[in-house]
Fold this protein.
Amino acid sequence: MDLLQIIRKSKNFKSFVNKKKIKIVLISNISVHIFKNFIEYELKKSQINSEVKIANFDNLVQESENFKNYDVVILFFELLNFYHNVNNKKKKLSSNTLNRFQQDLKLCFKILKNTPLVLLNKFSDKIINEFRIIEKQKKIESKINKLIEKLASKNFHFLETSLILEKVGIKNSIDKNNFIKTRTLYSTKFMHEYAKLIKPSIMSLCGKQKKAIILDCDNTLWGGILGEDKKKIHIGSHSTKGKIFYEIQKILKDLKKRGLILCICSKNNFKEVENLFKKNKMPLSFKDFTIKKINWNNKVDNIKDISKELNIGYESLLFIDDSAFEIGLIKKYLNKVDCFKVSENFKDYLLNIKILSNSFYFGSLTKEDELRSKSYEHEKKRSLAKKKHSNIDDYIKSLNIKVFYDQGKKISISRASQLCQRTNQFNLTTKRYDEKQIKKMSKDRKFFISTISVKDDYGEYGITGLAIVKLNYQSKSAEIDTFLMSCRIIGRGIEKTFMNWIIKKIKKKNFYNLRSYYKKTEKNILVKNFYEQNNFKIISNLKIQKNYQLKL
């Protein structure tokens, strides 16, 4: 898609996006003005309104300071630009230039340590090699990459742009003459792929991250079709195709470790798939898949069931399949599910999986991320136990639920922020706080901040609830700024227990008035009457917001 098509299509989205804009800035030492159109277009496709600013040219430290309060800072620097005369093939990068850039990077990283999200391209020699510059200082890009990995804080995410160069092709990605004349290095094809690469990271920041990957089996997890006579299954070092699928499984395994749920949705015989996992040494085991819909049913129905069992929306799912027919069905009947078609060339499939993996931003890895797959196994056991009880109260009592509270400096900052970013359904105000903001509030006496962790006889739920209350000591009045809980623990009475605990704590501080509000979103209709159910009185009822008060 060319630039004019992107601009025309972007205009059509204006009436569909939210009014609130996420602020993004590109800081670069090459011309990146056209990138703005592609980034805004890709985000608008997912109902995210953005304002992309282009910082002043080649001024890393000062522009980092100027834009440190933006939501997203993209650092797009090229080593090529440090060679002032790229036509001189023997031109050497001076040690002074290199040292100055490294010092600028150190300052930049300090300045941006509290920015919600910083995206930084890893440095590659592919472009320098294409310009045929003879560089005696070998592996400069490797040296700088080691430096940035060492300096980066949790809010930094590194992008492998070399993967895009490989996908698009170096000749189709850059324009040498254009770079020499205008410092515009990249083609619109590259720009569009780059916008797609950064999109999932920005979506995560907006609470729209992917939570589960649903995979077909044949020619998706391994090469070949299981059960067909004279067809060999390829997985492992015995063939080129086998090595490719082995690498793909390793990437998927890593994504699972980082918190994504893996599921199977495949038209096969269940026992045959289970036996294949048992008999072959693969990075993924059968147990790595939380839900396994291995049957001959319609995949649309299977994915609906997976969404229901996981209790997550279609927009949080990614479906991977080699069949254009199956992909087409999901796109038609479940259009909120993102689909990934396996390439006919398996080498391209591996490359695209690498790009997919690099596009995900997880921030800090928490204990809950590691427990996520297990927690769904525990939930299955709870569902079986539920069937043994004639009423819900007896079932809840049988779980032997225990709730633990942390407050102030004792809370897990990373998990509290993660809950803010990810929780949509049981979230009264849907405020998105990053780790810096949570940490600041946890130390400020004007805020009462608390998290809950829950466990029962079947296992741990982990930290699953967060409350933030603003305290006004002069008026002896408090306001619930944030009250949210993971949907995994809803319906067990824990939400009421947590709210009663909050009320008790605020009352103990000798506050007489507790205010709160519910702000309506597309996804939090579940809690629209929560405060009424907890004895709060409505003091005003607006179109998208209800304000409440409770006399203590």
Q: What stands out?
A: The longest helix spans residues 367-386.
